[in-house]
């Protein structure tokens, strides 16, 4: 009984027998409505202080029934714990209020369980715990000012069922009762924390088992006091025995993976792993949010006390290893939060001006725009002439006056956060935004006169208008100078806040993969790229090529064989053009306006189709001559075994080639130079040798820092066009299936590296250019073997580094099966486990592989990787909103800062601090992933856990501060 108080038996028998209890002997309750035990006087007093209280006990039901039985109650009608076979209820009452918390829970007959009810008046929360785990929580009504338990000081504490026939006891007369055993009933005049609840269920107050006995705790959850800490850096266990040396009598172990693996700990000594100055990593892992304790008796002894401490800072953390940190920059699109340019127009989107009937000039501006001609009702042309910018920033683009400059003759409509207006060009217009929102700014060119077409539009951020060409005389537009191709734009080209963010962080490496629109880029020739003076830095280019014929018969056996190797899809057709098409093998095109038809069959069913490419399909072409090509007209739904049975040739039609070149290389180089950073450039997968030579010349002449040189991006990942292209090119050259795309990528990479060596001069290139091959983590041998074959047996491979993307996290397949019950804590636990095991193994194996070829290791991308598509979720993982919300919450949790600190410490230790390009800089979180280190331009390390975790590695900050232990549990 509580405090050793005696109990009075009421009902059948003068006493109840004792039985084997959880901790020694227990009270055996026979059941029956009229049978109960009472402690007089009760240990709870009238007008209990309103700080709160708790009460609980161990119980073991004889059977699981649906009836209601009372386990523990403060008579009369003040507080009780009742068990209903498949439910558990805690009820509390004072003179004016009665509240209860009911949870469904099925206990096991014949098994001990610990139940606890805790009321915390600071937030009026009532919590129920079973075996140390909270199973329910409810906010209840405020109690009256006279406090709790108003039925007098002497009211008894009842154990076992209380008779249900007495109205003033308020019991249910349902002919049910509790039968079983009760042990270690306890009451507290304060609320208990989750950690204390776990401790109560974890171990007894005093045990004296024989040698060989083992006691394992329930799960001890991270205490509330550490919830806001970035991590739990160590765990310490302190224990004592009634006599003898506790360190020789008992072996104490901890588990930080919920009992899967165990590590022995020393009494009172903080345990951590080698990342933070502790034991070398083996099978034991570092705790995030929970820990279990196991005690083994080496000899007979009485365990007197045991307490667990978790540390919010590392007890003896070594200095952070140096890491050559860098960043992947997010693509500057109209809905991006990156805001890299002083002129927002440079990242504007939605323009299809290349489709105007008059055509465009060399910089991409329409030669004329007349709504009556270019966008009449029913027209096949869609000319929006519209550029959206600063959209979906969640209102974080700057408030203030935007300066809009327009050169040429015509009209432009403005709309957005600052209202609407119609402008007549040329003009200089001040557009004021007082409350930025998600609309941003829209700029729609409605008319451009052929005699003097509009050829300049700028939308400068507040306070960032550069000096004009001819001063600032009143009445002039005041246009800034244009930067010609092969020259670098000035520092004023960039948003000052963007530059400041990079320089303040100390960023010294920038990967421009997304700036170059690398994935699926259709650009093959140097003339196709954007320059600093293009219509914008994200402008698209469109070419239209007239068709002469489309037939279903190959002009020769050789063409048919090549088409069979490269054009893998069915429904292959052969096209001739009225003029040289200028395409390259691998270009993605659309075909429209043809007059021919074909018929094909699949599985015994016949289908009709035109010679146009299906909607949303841009198939890859095989160039067979200056005026000829082969292509497939299959759609996603076309069966692979489909075959053409009849074909009526076409004698007209149009090929459309759309190119999205991305940001100009001059702008990339200028940014790197302005912040003193190295540049990581990815060469488009279709780029011809002339393109590569000119790019090498530009970087040699203009880039001040080092160049990291990569062929395309992830030419192993089948979601990207470039991997498909590499596989088809390998097949065209006669390679069989398997890893042919990897070997082809390596050979193309080596050829590109050779061009750069010739342009730079080999000795200079070895100082300024890092030649790298990026591989899927845990792989790389096919690429390196191909590179070695080119170099010759025994020769040095012409590659400097092997690059991987060692992302860590909880993946969709791990989380989805339990996503409705899995918590943020669980997701962070999985992420830490992955980082400390699989990712660390990948780093080590990659270093070993690279050393075999006398190469170094890099990370082309990395960081957390949680959310988005992929996995086996039935509706598509990206559409499981509840799961994606938890991934987003994990990314915003401050423990993510601790995970990033640990992650980069591991990378630094395993690779010697090799360059690491974190992905990414600034982007929003959503169902496709939470990639940004920052979510908005104006975020800081104070509200961005990932940025806070990586920033010290950019800055080379010292180790963590001294330890700050906080008790998690004790008993």
UniProtKB/TrEMBL annotation:
It comes from the Eukaryota. InterPro entries: ConA-like_dom_sf (IPR013320). Pfam families: Laminin_G_3 (PF13385). This is LamG-like jellyroll fold domain-containing protein.
